[in-house]
Amino acid sequence: MTLLAEDLLLLLLYDTSGKPVVDGTRMPRVLAGAVLLELALGDVVTPAEPGEDVKKGRLVARDGARPQDPLLARAVDLIGTSKPMKPEAAIEKLAKNLRDELAKRIVGTGWVREEKGKVLGIFPTTRWPEVDGSHERALRSELSAALLDGVTPTPRTAALVSLLSAVDAAPKLFPDADRRAVKKRAKEIAEGDWAGKAVRTSVEAVNAAIVVAATVPAIVAGSG
């Protein structure tokens, strides 16, 4: 199974141009949020609860099976070997080089290709136009059912919606639909009761952290 962060990156790239749908401040941070949410869904890393030795809301690496995916395993190591971090601080650390690493992975699957160029002949740019749209079409079909048709999403699809909602990207995936209605539905799903308490807490923490991190990255970087 692909990572949430891989699926999210694929959705956040325009198919034809290969350019990102969201800006360079929010993109790496929402991808990092996807990594945290993946770990929360697996009960691998979740915010501390009242009564634990760790301050409430700080991230805790739980005892259990180590993720097999090397990217997730590195994230667990980062969180588990540091002093307990706030989600926004973890996002800042996880975001470093994450987009490029995930891009290599989706290039490797054959879903997109990498195109390098320069703006004004000086500034380097990278784009990832679509090559094989089958996986993204499947993702969009699930998202469409949830956002446009009112179908109750699976926890994984709901997690994707919550991340898209955090960067206000859901309406951009369905430009022919009512933007306000899509945005409202995405928010409803993001705030809905589709996951257990630990994941629910993680969704709220991750979404808030993405907003904070994208707004004041310099301040957040030192808030761990």
Automatic annotation (TrEMBL):
Keywords: Golgi apparatus, Lipid-binding, Membrane. GO terms for molecular function: phosphatidylinositol-4-phosphate binding. It is a peripheral membrane protein. One of its GO terms (cellular component) is endomembrane system. Its main location: Golgi. Coiled coil: none annotated. Signal peptide: none annotated. The keyword GTP-binding does not apply. It is found in: Golgi apparatus membrane. This is GPP34 family phosphoprotein. It comes from Rhodococcus opacus (Nocardia opaca).
